[in-house]
Design goal:
Elements: H1 9-16, H2 18-51, H3 53-56, H4 68-105
């Protein structure tokens, strides 16, 4: 039994559209780039915890808060920021390309 999606002419039109391949290429490249950056930040923080505890344990000022707390919060804020960047790009460029692809395929 063959795949019913493979027989759908709309799917064939979309897959044949150069804009579809452009969308996939751009989305994959950007997604993997963002993943790499996030992994460097996150695993960099984990490596600091594992290999340089004295650095993270340095107190800030005269209080009891150590340097590790704001760095950890920075990792969380960074995650939120790059998520926002991805969503903004997806809602702009990627949605625009998707709409163009669907419009051309429905002709």
């Amino acid at each position: 039994m063959s795949d019913p999606v493979a027989r759908d002419p709309m799917v064939a039109k979309i897959e044949a559209n150069p804009k579809y391949h452009e969308l996939r290429r751009k989305r994959n490249k950007f997604g993997w780039s963002m993943t790499a950056v996030m992994m460097v930040v996150y695993y960099g923080y984990i490596a600091l915890i594992a290999f340089n505890k004295p650095f993270l344990a340095q107190p800030i000022g005269a209080g009891v808060t150590s340097l590790g707390i704001p760095i950890g919060l920075g990792v969380i804020v960074f995650t939120i920021v790059i998520t926002g960047i991805y969503v903004r790009r997806a809602n702009g460029e990627y949605d625009r390309l998707t709409a163009e692809i669907l419009k051309e395929a429905s002709k």
